[in-house]
Amino acid sequence: MGRLAGTSRIALDTEADSLHCYFEKLCLIQVSVDGEHWLVDPLSGLDLQPLFDIVCSRRLVFHGADYDLRLLRRAGRFDPEDLFDTMIAARLCGRNGLGLAALVEDFFGIKLSKASQKANWAIRPLSDQMVEYALNDTRYLLEIAARLENDLRQLGRWEWFEESRDRMIASTRDVKERDDDTVWRISGSSALPPRAQAILRILWFWRDAEARAWDRPPFHVIGNEDMLRVADQAGKGSEYSTPRMNGRRKKSFEVVLALALQIPENEWPKMEKVRRKRSTKDLMVRFDALKKTRDAVAAELGLDPAILAPRGALEMTAADSESPALMKWQRRLLGLEAHA
Fold this sequence. Notes:
Blueprint: H1 2-5, E1 9-16, E2 26-33, E3 36-40, H2 49-55, E4 59-62, H3 65-75, E5 82-85, H4 86-92, H5 100-108, H6 128-139, H7 141-155, H8 158-172, H9 194-214, H10 218-221, H11 224-235, H12 247-260, H13 281-301, H14 305-308, H15 311-319, H16 328-333
Parallel strand pairs: 1-4, 4-5
Antiparallel strand pairs: 1-2, 2-3
């Protein structure tokens, strides 16, 4: 702790076990300070709050901080006073490679191994390979951040960075509650007929309960494609093959599926009606004008047009000139009055 208290910049990263458990948990915190690198083990029962209090009073450097901030906030009070995100900075500098490995290779000519990218970070002890992989996540961050900050300031884009970072941080504070009426509507479900959707809905909640009890990700129980296939085939009265499962789970699956086939028509899900605002001629003219301006400015600045202004944000701005979809720096570049 004393070493951290004596520095003004700290690089952080985290590892979780989301690919291996239903109840995701913080498994590792990587810390780098002035050439020194440590791993902190949250699974050891260590009180993390003293660490959080110290690091949050310094400038923290992350690469893609969105996920890390959500994870760290669930582990304690974590509210950084100053944060630098190298992914946001790289994007606003117009760099082609935005991943950490790409930045490390560009800046240092070093190729990082991806061998532990999908490792189970809850296991102990960690292998030497996993330790090296984890340490490399923060080893180069402080130097990368310094170079990117210099580039941002030279390009006159520091204000862009601050506003983009602040919006990202604000978004991580949003906690979305699960909506049981829609949570089962996975990709591809809307193409199913109503009876098949009723079956899928039952199978989804069965899978969720199984995954919770087993403490494994839902796809370990049954994948989305298999659920869609079985729901579609069973709903049509066709033969279907049960995905590979152990004996108890297979029997439970077949019982639940049999019950799902008995659901009366008046309890089938209603087909979702997507109500889209009709595009008027004036709206299309405004959108096309904004897009044309965006593309020209992006080309002049050497930026991906989607970074300057995503299509969805342009559509919302065309429909409502006061929409907050675009940030102030984006609005200024597009010649729009800054939104207060």
